[in-house]
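Structure ticket #2291
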Amino acid sequence: MDSFELNKIIAAVLMVALLVIGIGKVADVIFHVDKPKTPGYVVEVDQAASTEVQTAKDSVEEKIDISALLAMGDLATGEKVFKKCAACHSIVKGGKNNIGPALYNVVGRKVGVINDYKYSKALSEYSKEWTFEELNGYLIKPAKWIKGTKMAFAGLRKEKDRASVILYLNKNSDKPLPLP
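Resolution: structure written out below.
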C-alpha cells in the first residue's frame, strides 16, 4: 500500500468524524430548546412526615422480640450460614484471630476486648456486651450498627439466618447463655 492510499483512508475517517460532529451541532441549532426560568410545577416535601417515618423505623428496629427471633433459628442452619463468617473468623476454642477476631465465647463478652487483635476505633470504644440483641443488630448490617467499624460484611438480611448464627455462636462457648 502506498502513501496515497493511506492518506485517503485517514481522510475518510476524519471526514466521518467531522460529519458526525457537524450533524450534532446543526441539530442543536435547528432544534434549540430554551429551558423555562421557573419549573412547570413545584414538588413540596413535608419534612415532618419523613422524620416520623424514620422515627417509626428506628423504634421497630429497637423493639425486636429476641425470643421470637431466636425461636426461628436452628443450629444446623447456623453452622451452614456461619461458613460465610468463617472466611474471616474462627469459632474453635483457642482458635487464632484471622482477618477478624476469634468468635469462640463471643456471646456475653464485652465488645472489642481480645488483646491480640487490633480492633477499629469504633469497636474499641463501643462499651457494650455482645448480647443476643446486639448481635442481631450488628449482623443486620455491621457498618450501620456501629459506625466506623472496619468489618466490610454486607450483613444477613434473613431473620432465620441471623437467629441461626446467633444460636450457633452461643453454642460455641464454654458457658452458653440461657435463651430468653
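Closing remark: Residues 50 and 157 are 24 Å apart (CA to CA).
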